[in-house]
Design goal:
104 residues, mainly alpha, transmembrane helix, Caveolin
Length: 104
Amino acid sequence: MSHFHHTTLNTSTRGRMAAGAGSGDGAGQGDGSALWSILWLVVLLIIGFWVSGFCAAIYVLLNTFTACCEGITPVCEILMKGVQFTGLCGKYIAKGTPFSEAFK
């Protein structure tokens, strides 16, 4: 006996899925292009992981001292943005955002 739940899709949903048409941010229905997605992937692989990893290590060390040193809090906030850089790259990959629009 199978423990998997089987759902039935109507024919229009099956047709859209078979054609590769989704409805999310990465559905390819925005203004972005595949070239920008590839460029953002290169940025992610070459720069993004290194920036996020470095910022995460420093953030973990400094965040310990924010309770006693209030002056470190702005530095930790900047480091957190660096930690989140990989997520930002992923969003831009999904949308195909040009560099000029990403840094406005």
